[in-house]
C-alpha cells in the first residue's frame, strides 16, 4: 500500500449505529477470529507469520478456554480484555506479550539508491519485541472530539495544507463530526492526547495492537480485502477492519501519527552496537542536498537548518511498514520526501489515536497466545545469513555494518559477520533475495531476471561500480 487517495466515505451513521448508542458495538462479544492463512509466497516470511498446525493444536490443548478478546491475569486465569469508557471513545486494554515487529519487502531492489540514496525499507528486519499491557483507543480521534478540545482551549484548530481540500466539505455536521481528525501536526496530536489524559502510542504499541502475536501483514489477516474501503469514513464504523484485539480502522481510514521520532535504521539498531554510516557517506550527502533544495530552492546564499530534519513516524495498513512526516513543510518543498513519500507533514489523510498506561486499579494481562517464530539468521551449509538488509551504504560502510553485528541467540550473541564474496552470493542465490545490487567483499553483485521479483534461482552477475556507490548489503558468517 504505497499511498492512499483521499476518498471520503460518509457511511450512514443512523443505519449503522444510533448516535445514542455510540459505544454499543463494544458491548457485543468480540468478532470471530479471522483466518490468517499464508502471508506471502516467500520462504522466510512464511516462518514469521503463522504458527504451525502442530503448534496451534498444542496451544489450544494447553489453553482451550482463552483466545482472542481475552488475556491471562497474574493468577493465570483467563479474563475478558478490559474496556474503558472515556467521553469520546472507548479504550481497549491490550494484553502484554511478545510480537513480531517490522517487515520485509517482496524483494530487495536497491537500484534507486544508486541515483538517489535513501532508506526505503526501514521496517526490516522483522524481530521480536515485548510490551506490557496498555490501553489504546478503539478508533481514531474524531473531528467532534477534537473540536471539543479546541473549545476547551487545550487544542489549536486544525488546518489542512494549502492545496488540499478539507475532507468535511459538503458533509452533514453529524457525519463530519464522526470522521477521523486529520490535518493536524504531530504536536497538535500529542496535545490532544494529553488533554484526554493519555498520550500518543509508541510505534511498537500501535503495531502490536494492529497485528497481535501472529505477525499478520494487515490488521485483519494476510490478504488485501477488496470490501474494506480505502479513504476516510466515520471512525470505527467499518468492522471488517478489526485487528487481532478488535481495534478498528488501523488498516484503512486515516494514516496515524505515533510518538516515535523517525530513525531510518531503527530496526537494525538492536543488532549493531556501533555507528556504521559516515558523516560524508552517500545517505548523509543525499540528505544534505535534499534539505538545501527543500528549504532554499536555488538560493545559494540560503542555509537550511543543520542536521537531519526531525520527523515522526506514522503508520498505516501494511502494519510492519513505517514512514515519517515533519512538523511543517519546508518553504521550497518539492512535493515528496527523499524516500518518495507524498505525506510529508500535517495532511488531509493523516490522523491519530491515543494510548495510555494502565491505571492503579487496572489488572495487567498477558496475551494467551505464543508469538510467531522468526528466522533472524538462516543457515545454508557452512554459512549463516543475517536476515536484515542495510540500505544506501558505500562499501566501507557495509563492511563496518557487518563487522559490528551482534545478533542475540539465546543467552549469547552471534558475531564474526562480514560481507559475502561474489562466489558466496551465487551459492546463496536461492535465499539471498534480489535483485539488489548488493555489496560483496570483492565487488558488487546484481541478480538478472525478466520477472519482478526475480526468480530465486535467477543468476547473479558482477556489477562494476566504484566503492562510494550507494548499494544495499547483507552479511554472512562462516560456521565451519
Q: Which segments are poorly predicted (pLDDT under 50) over 5 or more consecutive residues?
A: 12-51
How much of the polypeptide forms β-strand, as a percent range?
15-25%
Q: What is the CA-CA span between the terminal residues?
A: 42 Å
Instruction: Calculate the mean pLDDT score and round it.
Output: 87
Quaternary organization: single chain
**Total DSSP helices:** 13
Number of strands: 24
Calculate Rg over CA atoms: 23 Å
Describe the sheet with the most strands.
4 strands, antiparallel
Please give the share of residues in helix. 10-25%
What structural class do the secondary elements suggest? Answer: alpha+beta
Strand order of the largest sheet: 3-4-8-13
Shape: globular
Brief description of this entry?
With 480 residues, this protein is of the alpha+beta class. 20% of the residues lie in helices and 18% in strands.
Amino acid at each position: 500500500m504505497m499511498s492512499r487517495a483521499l476518498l471520503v466515505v460518509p457511511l450512514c451513521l443512523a443505519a449503522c449505529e444510533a448516535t445514542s448508542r455510540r459505544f454499543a458495538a463494544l458491548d457485543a462479544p468480540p468478532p470471530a477470529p479471522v483466518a490468517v492463512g499464508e502471508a506471502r509466497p516467500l520462504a522466510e516470511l512464511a516462518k514469521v507469520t503463522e504458527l504451525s498446525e502442530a503448534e496451534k493444536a498444542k496451544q489450544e490443548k494447553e489453553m482451550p478456554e482463552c483466545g482472542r478478546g481475552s488475556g491471562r491475569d497474574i493468577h493465570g486465569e483467563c479474563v475478558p480484555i478490559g474496556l474503558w469508557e472515556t467521553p469520546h471513545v472507548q479504550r481497549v486494554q491490550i494484553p502484554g506479550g511478545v510480537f513480531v515487529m517490522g517487515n520485509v519487502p517482496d524483494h530487495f531492489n536497491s537500484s534507486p539508491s544508486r541515483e538517489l540514496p535513501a532508506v526505503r525499507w526501514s521496517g526490516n528486519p522483522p524481530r521480536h519485541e515485548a510490551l506490557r499491557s496498555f490501553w489504546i483507543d478503539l478508533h481514531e480521534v474524531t473531528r467532534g472530539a477534537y473540536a471539543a478540545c479546541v473549545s476547551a482551549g487545550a487544542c489549536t484548530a486544525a488546518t489542512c495544507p494549502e492545496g488540499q481540500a478539507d475532507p468535511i466539505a459538503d458533509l452533514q455536521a453529524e457525519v463530519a463530526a464522526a470522521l477521523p481528525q486529520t490535518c493536524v501536526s504531530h504536536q497538535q496530536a500529542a496535545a490532544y492526547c494529553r488533554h484526554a489524559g493519555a498520550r500518543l502510542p509508541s510505534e511498537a504499541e500501535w503495531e502490536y495492537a494492529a497485528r497481535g502475536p501472529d505477525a499478520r501483514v494487515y490488521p485483519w489477516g494476510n490478504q488485501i480485502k477488496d470490501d474494506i474501503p480505502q479513504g476516510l469514513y466515520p471512525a470505527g464504523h467499518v468492522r471488517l477492519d478489526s485487528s487481532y484485539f478488535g481495534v478498528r480502522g488501523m488498516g484503512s481510514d486515516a494514516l496515524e501519527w505515533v510518538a516515535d521520532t523517525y530513525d531510518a535504521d531503527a530496526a537494525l539498531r538492536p543488532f549493531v552496537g556501533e555507528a556504521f554510516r559516515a558523516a560524508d557517506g552517500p545517505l548523509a550527502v543525499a540528505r544534505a542536498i535534499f534539505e538545501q533544495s527543500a528549504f532554499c530552492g536555488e538560493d545559494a546564499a540560503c542555509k537550511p537548518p543543520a542536521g537531519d530534519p526531525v520527523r515522526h513516524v506514522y503508520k498505516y495498513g501494511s502494519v510492519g511498514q513505517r514512514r515519517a512526516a515533519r512538523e511543517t513543510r519546508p518553504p521550497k518543498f518539492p512535493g515528496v520526501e527523499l524516500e518518495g513519500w507524498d505525506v510529508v507533514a500535517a495532511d488531509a489523510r493523516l490522523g491519530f489515536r491515543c494510548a495510555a498506561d494502565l491505571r492503579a486499579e487496572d489488572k495487567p494481562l498477558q496475551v494467551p497466545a505464543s508469538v510467531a517464530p522468526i528466522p533472524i539468521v538462516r543457515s545454508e551449509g557452512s554459512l549463516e545469513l543475517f536476515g536484515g538488509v542495510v540500505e544506501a551504504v558505500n562499501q566501507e560502510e557495509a563492511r563496518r555494518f557487518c563487522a559490528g553485528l551482534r545478533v542475540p541467540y539465546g543467552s549469547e550473541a552471534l558475531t564474526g559477520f562480514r560481507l559475502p564474496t561474489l562466489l558466496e552470493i551465487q551459492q546463496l542465490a536461492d535465499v539471498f533475495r534480489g535483485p539488489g545490487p548488493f555489496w560483496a567483499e570483492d565487488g558488487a553483485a546484481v541478480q538478472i531476471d525478466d520477472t519482478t521479483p526475480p526468480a530465486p534461482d535467477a543468476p547473479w552477475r558482477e556489477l562494476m561500480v566504484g566503492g562510494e556507490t550507494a548499494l544495499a548489503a547483507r552479511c554472512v558468517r562462516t560456521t565451519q
